[in-house]
Design a protein that fits this description.
The structure is a single chain. By secondary structure, this protein is of the alpha/beta class. It has a single domain (about 5-255), classed as Alpha-Beta Barrel (TIM Barrel), CATH 3.20.20.70. The protein is about 45% helix and about 15% strand. The chain has 12 helices and 8 strands. It has an 8-stranded parallel β-barrel with strand order 1-2-3-4-5-6-7-8, surrounded by 7 helices. Helix 3 (about 80-85) links the parallel strand 3 (about 60-65) and strand 4 (about 90-95). It is globular and about 45 Å long. The relative contact order is 0.15. The mean pLDDT is about 95. The structure holds 2-phosphoglycolic acid (PGA). 2-phosphoglycolic acid binds near residues 9, 211, 212, 214 and 232.
Length: about 260
């Protein structure tokens, strides 16, 4: 059985003191959750302080992006080892907002992925189609291209540490989530692709999160699907009550 992983992507919200307030609230609410990996991904400037508060807790730290070079004259960028130094164990790569607003491609995703794996952290690689692509029946083709190009050259050994997040772009921040059936269809397809790229056993061990308007009201149905192994949560992760509710419901469904 794959262990669930639920990550909060705080995007560009919350300064340091707000980040600490949210983290402390979540620690209080979630201290007894045992069978779920809980990950918080604050803005870069909050990472080190949040990391301190998370010491000895059951909540782990992740970053929202990374640059693939180790160090150098790359103004504004941050390396995998710097994120690790700040306490991160996870890094989100290729979020659709990065692809849309910052020209990220499957090739840059691939380079970032290699850097994160080399650092020993676990990458959360985002894939997903736009509304236009879904309406043109291109969803599975797009997912295939994003995965094949994104995972190019990643060894079977490293693939075990991968986490994939299926995030239909039309469902992100829109309040319009994919139905559990729509999501499961793509998740099962992703797992079949991973089987082809790697092996059945490796594909069976890789966790695939769903993301896009996840909230307390729709998490139960999503978590009941056999190939959905957690969630990447944006808006609903910015609030103690909604994020902890999502996690508690998931624990109940998967117990
Ligand atoms: P949302 O964002 O939950 O606000 O739709 C999800 C994401 O972008 O990861």
């Amino acid at each position: 059985m794959r262990r669930l992983i639920i990550a909060g992507n705080w995007k560009m919200y919350k300064n340091i003191s707000e980040s600490l307030e949210l983290t402390n609230g979540l620690k209080r609410e979630l201290y007894d959750i045992e069978n779920i990996d809980i990950v918080l991904c604050p803005v870069f400037t909050s990472l080190a302080s949040v990391s301190e508060v998370l010491t000895d807790s059951n909540i782990q730290l992740g970053a929202q992006d990374v640059y693939w070079q180790k160090e150098g004259a790359f103004t504004g960028e941050i390396s995998a080892s710097m994120l690790k130094d700040a306490g991160c164990l996870f890094v989100i790569i290729g979020h659709s907002e990065r692809r849309q607003y910052f020209s990220e491609s499957n090739q840059s995703v691939n380079q970032k992925l290699k850097a994160v794996l080399e650092s020993g952290m676990a990458p959360i690689v985002c894939v997903g189609e736009t509304l236009k692509q879904r309406e043109a029946n291109k969803t599975l083709d797009i997912i295939k291209e994003q995965l094949q190009e994104g995972l190019e050259g990643i060894s079977a050994e490293d693939a075990g540490r991968l986490i994939i997040a299926y995030e239909p772009v039309w469902a992100i921040g829109t309040g319009k989530n994919a139905t559990a059936t729509q999501a499961e269809e793509v998740h099962a397809y992703i797992r079949s692709l991973l089987e082809k790229i790697y092996t059945k056993d490796i594909a069976a061990s890789i966790r695939i999160q769903y993301g896009g308007s996840v909230k307390p009201g729709n998490i139960e149905e999503l978590m009941q699907q056999p190939d959905i192994d957690g969630a990447l949560v944006g808006g609903a992760s910015l609030n103690v009550d909604s994020f902890s509710e999502i996690i508690k419901i998931s624990q109940r469904v998967r117990k």
